[in-house]
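so my prof wants the structure for this chain in the tokens format not the other one, which i didnt know existed until like an hour ago. anyway here's the sequence
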Amino acid sequence: MKRLLAVLALCASAGLAADISGNWKATAEGPNGAMERTFTFKVDGNKVTGETTSSMLGKSTITDGKIDGDTVTFTITANFGGNDMKISYKGKISGNEIHFTSSTAANEGQSIEWVAKKTS
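here's what i got, hopefully its the right format
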């Protein structure tokens, strides 16, 4: 009986993963003012892929993406001044909004807070 309940709980939690497929526009306040970034997410089960674009860093591929309930995590590799920089994102999904925190290893604990809204 305990095993059956554990299997049912696991199936239920897998079914509760949020579907963020589609296009999103995010904004954040950076050290030099407002920043924008767009995301195109593709979701397959709990796996997240896609791409993201910003005027400052250009286009990047979303890698290592996953959704667990209402939490999404992924990384991108962006080219900044000729150097590749890995940026990690962690977000909390709430309806048609995602509140992200992004950071790099070079930031040494500093992060940027983003609010993304679904556009399509």
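also thought this was worth mentioning. The longest strand covers residues 33-44.
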